[in-house]
Design brief:
It comes from Nocardioides caeni. GO terms for molecular function: DNA binding; sigma factor activity. Keywords: DNA-binding, Sigma factor, Transcription, Transcription regulation. The protein is an all-alpha fold. It folds into 2 domains: about 100 residues, Orthogonal Bundle (Rna Polymerase Sigma Factor, Chain: A); about 80 residues, Winged helix-like DNA-binding domain superfamily/Winged helix DNA-binding domain (Arc Repressor Mutant, subunit A, Orthogonal Bundle), CATH 1.10.10. The protein is about 75% helix and about 0% strand. The protein has 8 helices and no strands. It starts with a helix and ends with a helix.
């Protein structure tokens, strides 16, 4: 389905067309799974985030006003869902670690890819606790690879502000992502 067709379908769904919403959810499910999979290590976790994101799309489609491409809006919803799933999994793991010993091996010591994803998600959590306005632009640019203009439209923020936030976010997370021996 082309971006224009998705935009049209999304606007119909936002206007209350139930059939359009069902078609839209079916059409975007693979894309949402890919977005979540880029951020979460295990396919089961990505699938959980995908289902949460699709539920959010279904319940919040009325907020899509067509100011940006639907796919841009979808990237933000899916990225936020993946980050939320990560927070939930992290909390569950911490609760389990208290109840059960020994703790499973840290994926950061067993896989470079796994470690970089976990480190990035953890850095985003830290950044979000002090500067939440910096997280979403950084994720949309550096993880989801949206261009600056799309991010500005999606966030309804001036382009210069978006670029500045991404710059400051990169500067803040860089020390947290450095490899230490």
């Amino acid at each position: 389905m082309t971006p224009d067709e998705l935009d049209s379908l999304a606007l119909r769904a936002a206007a209350g067309d139930r059939e359009a919403l069902e078609d839209l959810l079916a059409a975007v499910q693979p894309r949402v799974r890919r977005i979540c999979g880029r951020m979460l290590l295990f396919p089961e976790d990505a699938e959980e985030a995908t289902q949460d994101a699709l539920l959010l799309v279904a319940t919040r489609i009325g907020t899509f006003a067509g100011r940006s491409r639907f796919t841009t809006w979808l990237h933000a919803v899916a990225s936020n869902s993946a980050r939320s799933t990560y927070r939930t999994l992290k909390r569950r793991a911490a609760e389990r670690a208290v109840d059960e010993l020994p703790v499973a091996a840290d994926p950061r010591t067993t896989s470079v890819i796994a470690g970089s994803r976990l480190d990035l998600l953890e850095a985003l959590e830290v950044l979000g606790s002090t500067h939440p306005e910096l997280v979403e632009p950084l994720v949309l640019r550096d993880v989801q690879e949206l261009d600056y203009n799309e991010i500005a439209r999606l966030l309804d923020t001036p382009l210069g502000t978006v670029k500045a936030r991404i710059h400051h976010a990169r500067k803040a997370v860089r020390p947290m992502l450095q490899v230490h021996d």
